């Protein structure tokens, strides 16, 4: 068996062993860095599954909630990449996402109760009653009538401690900017 080694350490990495800096994380620009394991850091707890069955948006939502956790919500670029990788394997040109348009509130919302801080809309998408969001295999989001049938992506069921972490990761938007426009701002803490 052949062994190999791969590393992608950034300039802040210390080759000197430091008992306090025993953990690694991905840094901006996707380099690795070492950090103090005692210091709180953000992390992802996100597991998605592609369901290669054609269902309406409501049927997909019900299926995900009964068999996994929910239809997928995408709140940042990393989650976008994970979901897009799954969407590329779909049997249909689009996959349902867990986002729907509310005529009453005149806004798009994630069924997971996450705020719409990140988006990847294709140009000229409509916001009308009876519309839900889909992702094309190339990752762009489109609006489709919720009675159409597509494959869909669920968030897998996680353990309790992971659910707690998952719910604390997502961005916070200014309440006045909930309509998904490009003027949305993300608050980072």
From TrEMBL:
Gene3D superfamilies in alphabetical order: Mannose-Binding Protein A, subunit A (3.10.100.10)
Alphabetized CDD domains for the sequence: CLECT
Domain of life: Eukaryota
Domain spans labelled C-type lectin: 41-155
PANTHER family: C-TYPE LECTIN DOMAIN FAMILY 20 MEMBER A-RELATED, C-TYPE LECTIN DOMAIN FAMILY 4 MEMBER K-LIKE-RELATED
Protein's recorded name: FRAS1-related extracellular matrix protein 1
């Amino acid at each position: 068996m052949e062994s190999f080694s791969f590393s992608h350490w950034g300039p802040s990495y210390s080759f000197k062993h430091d008992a306090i800096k025993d953990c690694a994380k991905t840094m901006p620009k996707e380099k690795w860095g070492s950090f103090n394991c005692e210091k709180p850091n953000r992390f992802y707890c996100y597991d998605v599954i592609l369901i290669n069955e054609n269902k309406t948006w409501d049927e997909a939502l019900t299926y995900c909630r009964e068999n996994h956790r929910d239809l997928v919500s995408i709140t940042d670029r990393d989650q976008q990449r994970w979901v897009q990788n799954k969407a590329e394997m779909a049997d249909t040109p689009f996959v349902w996402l867990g986002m729907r348009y509310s005529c009453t509130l005149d806004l798009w919302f994630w069924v997971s109760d996450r705020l719409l801080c990140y988006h990847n809309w294709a140009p000229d998408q409509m916001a009308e009653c009876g519309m839900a969001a889909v992702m094309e295999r190339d990752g762009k989001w489109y609006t489709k009538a919720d009675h159409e049938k597509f494959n869909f992506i669920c968030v897998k069921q996680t353990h309790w401690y992971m659910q707690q972490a998952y719910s604390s990761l997502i961005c916070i938007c200014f309440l006045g900017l909930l309509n998904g426009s490009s003027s949305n701002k993300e608050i980072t803490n």
